């Protein structure tokens, strides 16, 4: 069951992210009622994620500027080399603070800041990845009253990240990529 009061979605992924996100993001309509804020671990050079997904998706896809207001019907990818945070006024903040678990952008940083801002209105999605970034942030979402969906580690390209999230968040929902896509597509239509 998804919360009727959902206000935003945050997604974290690493190894295997392009394939996983390709099963989810194209299913979101241009009029999707929520913002989707994503951290993917990428090298510090231009990633091409925005161009790749803009060509596949009906929903707007962009790399945000610092202090940019977060809008519904838009996917925001963290720029390579920057932490991306959600401020209390629901704007994007970009930071060059130290890497977390060797990653900048960090999934934990995004998830924790978004949990502080959106509370029970936040849906977190943990996808494939080969380290434990996102587990602490997923717990922060649960602690704030939000919902966490985790890709089934048995079918993930890299299972470390989903397993770490589930270990920290036993109440998270473990779902296939198709089931995650279905649930996210239904948010706002209930």
What does this structure look like?
The chain is of the alpha/beta class. The chain has one domain: Methylesterase CheB, C-terminal domain (Rossmann fold), CATH 3.40.50.180. Helix content is about 30%, strand content about 20%. It contains six helices and nine strands; from the N terminus they run βαβαββββαβαβαβα. The strands form two sheets. The chain has a seven-stranded parallel sheet. The longest helix is centred in the middle third of the chain and has 12 residues, at about 105-120. The chain is globular, with a radius of gyration of 14 Å. The protein starts with 7 loop residues before the first strand and ends with a helix. About 50% of the residues are buried.
How do the strands of the widest beta sheet line up side by side?
3-4-2-1-7-8-9
Instruction: Tell me the number of structural domains.
Output: 1
Provide the gyration radius in Å: 14 Å
Mean pLDDT: 92
H/E order of the elements?
EHEHEEEEHEHEHEH
CATH superfamily: Methylesterase CheB, C-terminal domain
- The CATH architecture term is 3-Layer(aba) Sandwich
Q: Which stretches are low in confidence, meaning pLDDT under 50 for 5 or more residues running?
A: none
Structural class: alpha/beta
**What's the level 1 CATH class?**
Alpha Beta
Q: What gross morphology would you assign?
A: globular
CATH fold name = Rossmann fold
């Amino acid at each position: 069951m998804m919360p009727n009061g959902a206000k935003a979605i945050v997604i974290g992924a690493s190894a295997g992210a392009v394939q996983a996100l390709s099963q989810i993001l194209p299913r979101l309509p241009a009029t999707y009622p929520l913002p989707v804020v994503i951290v993917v671990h990428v090298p510090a050079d231009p990633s091409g994620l925005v161009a790749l997904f803009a060509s596949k998706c009906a929903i707007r896809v962009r790399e945000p500027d610092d202090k940019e207001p977060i809008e519904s019907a838009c996917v925001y990818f963290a720029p390579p080399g920057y932490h991306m945070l959600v401020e209390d006024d629901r704007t994007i903040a970009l930071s060059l603070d130290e890497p977390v678990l060797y990653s900048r952008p960090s999934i934990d940083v995004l998830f924790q800041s978004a949990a502080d801002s959106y509370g029970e209105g936040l849906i977190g999605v943990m996808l494939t990845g080969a380290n434990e970034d996102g587990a602490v942030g997923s717990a922060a979402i649960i602690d704030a009253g939000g919902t966490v969906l985790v890709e089934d580690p048995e079918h993930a390209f890299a299972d470390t990240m989903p397993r770490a999230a589930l270990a920290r968040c036993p109440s998270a929902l473990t779902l296939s990529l198709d089931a995650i896509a279905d649930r996210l597509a239904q948010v706002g239509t209930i």
